[in-house]
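Section handout 9: paired folding examples.
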Amino acid sequence: MKNDLAQNIRVFRKEKGLTQEQLAEVFDVTVGAIHKWEAGLSTPDVSVLMELADFFDISMDTLLGFDLRDNRVKELAKRLRNMTDRMEKDGLQEAEKALLKYPHSIEVVHEAAYMYQAFASTIADKEKYFKRAKELYELAIRLLPSGCSDPWINDTVLYGGLASTILAMGDVEEAVKILKAHNAGGAFNATIGNILAGQKDTKEADVFLSYGLIIQLGRYMNLVVGKVLFYLNTKQYQEAKDVTLWAIDTLSHLRKEDKPCYIDKLECIALCGLAMAELKMKKKAEAKKILQKAKEKADFFDSAPDYNGQSLRFVSITEKCELYDMSGDKTAKESIGDVISQLEDTELQSIWKSINK
């Protein structure tokens, strides 16, 4: 039977654009060993053959003269992430192999950068690893215009990783500069504020932290509403109740003064979910009591609606910042009606109708 191993090692090496010296470095062998393999003068051990096949993105059969193995970039990047999550000691070696195989793959480069950044926090020689992570993040950023199929990777992720690495290296000013330059949609407001507060730049820090709080409030409510709906749909009514009570308690701490503010409208929405949970647990009287409270809050807010973020506690900004939700310009009471309608429970709708006469 004809053995094509020697020829295939040479062919696949050249397809990767590698010299014998570079391949020898990857597998930690001498250049002479590579020469003998390609000349058919010697044969790698089985374990090395398996590593060669993996490196060339082929099966053992193909390496010996048969068919190809599917080892797509996506799967390789996923494998690198898993190795990082498990902090596998040979992960960095695998990352460097992957970089040689796919030097222009933003997915592979990003995962390698993330791995070096993660591993740097666990060793004494941090500077070397952080430096490599920085190089790889910068490379990934340069590759970004060529496109990326991974929806989890964009300029915000890459610049965030780069800034985080530079911060870990001790260059606070450069890290903040990068974050400010790429703070689209206020994505880095909280991070910037955190860093500045640590540097005792309290005035500027509070501005970033305040806008960060406003942004996080919207995300927090989306999370809570989503969890409440999930628990209601899966009949986990006690969980729906508990997560709603958690939200209401959190919102209460954002009230600055005893006058209408945006928190009232958000609490009205939360109370609808709470009433639904109580009703599903056969507590109709309690559900009615909660909706009555929601109506009172709605009337209070609608008497002098205030959507200004400056009205919130812990928010220190000099310019007016209008808050909004999916209800648009509807009143708090109208919003309650919409939420109850969306919950599609006739009994809850009947209770609300009896209250909102």
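Moving on to protein 2 of 2.
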Amino acid sequence: MNTEVPVTPVAESRDSAQTHDAHTATAPAPTASSGEPRAPRPLGVLVGFDGSANATAALRWAAREAQLRHLPLTVTSSFTIAPAVSGYLESFPDPQGQTLARKATEAVLEDAKKLLSGYSGDVTYRLEHGDAAGVMVRLSGSAELCVVGSRGRGGFTGRILGSVAAALPAHSHSPTVVVPHTKGSPAAADPETPSAAGSRPVVVGIDGSPHSRTAAVEAARTAMSHGTSLQLLMALPPLTTAALWYPELAAREQAMAHSRMDDLNRDLDVEVGWIQAQFPELSVSGSVKEGFPVDLLHEMGDQVDLTVVGTRGLSGLRSALLGSVSRELLHHSTVPVMVVPVQD
């Protein structure tokens, strides 16, 4: 069913990696919200569309995601007028709002309808007035999930990863997925084409913080809807570079790294066991790997269906605000990246 809504005003080993399968842990259980029921959000999967190749990939990804989650799909595009022009036009009332900008945006939504012509799910198309990022942030509180392309061409038109795709994950009231457009990517496939989801896992970067556990829960929900497994990743960044300059410190640094690896493996056992307890039907595993979080997650890109991170954490996979890990992944990932907001 297709519905239109009117425009609304702006308002391995010890030395490398170790893999952990789910089992019952004896350490204290983490505290974070899990599978508790949430109030339904009427917009379902909300996707911003501007007609660009990246937005088209995002539209198709969002359409498949809406079907997998049994949610409605909401497609939105926005228009705005530059202040210098707006002041001039306001002196000439236009009750029907038939401005060139609005007509162009209406044409964009018509393109979206054509792309989804064979889509069998429930779709609503929204024409909005306002800045694209601001519109998406405002609507995100009524959506289960927000989806945008990694870049656009104006409007929803995500002016590279500096406007919509960068601003939305940091301010959204729901999880946000940024979809890249790469040749041969599953995101570029037709929404009615059977998805390859299920053949590759969902991976989530965790650090033991409440924020990362929130991300892990959302990753688990997504893996369940995709019919695939979940992998938890903890990173052990290099401690210091002192051993490069003072070789006599190498043995001490190695001992510290081994001790820290043992600590992280114990923490990971707890996290894997906790997630498995919340989602008993889900296949959950985890690993601790040496390296920088962004590098590790990026290297896994061609092996996973989706990468999930929180907006911030503690350290390592601990991106303060939308800074290191989340931002770098959004800039360079070749697979969709989900950023889960903090639930304060």
